[in-house]
Specification:
Layout: H1 2-7, H2 9-37, H3 55-66, E1 71-79, E2 82-89, H4 95-108, H5 111-114, E3 118-125, E4 134-138, E5 146-147
Parallel strand pairs: 2-3
Antiparallel strand pairs: 1-2, 3-4, 4-5
Helix pairs in contact: 3-4
Length: 155
Amino acid sequence: MKNFVKTHKKQCLIGGIVFLVLFLIIVVWLFVVPLFKNNKYGDRLEGIEDHKISDSVVEDIESDLKENQMVSDVTFHNEGRILNFIITVSGDMKKDDAKALGEVVLEKIKDKDKEYYDIQVLIDSEEESDVYPIIGYKHKTEDAFDYGSEVESGE
């Protein structure tokens, strides 16, 4: 064996390099390439096809919220299993009335979808306010929104 390697040094070196390159290609093919096929959520979005929030539902929520004279704008964004609603209200709206806007959002979403999605409501004001912003969060296992701590003035 030793004599074979000494007499065929160049061929053994080329064979070793080819073997190493083929080994690296196989490792990359088996372990690295499949990672590029996955989305950033992995398998956390399983079943999302069964729980699509339609544009008509979002439009119903927006129109119901805008029926309130104090609401000037509503924005919706879906990020994975989180439904985000940004509601802009006038600065003189009472905090309890603003928190009630979260219930308007929940009324239009089906119960099975409420059990699948987390829902966030950010209520902000058009003007500078000591009350706003208010953030409400409803986990998929909860029945109602939980609102964050009180906003304190930075002065």
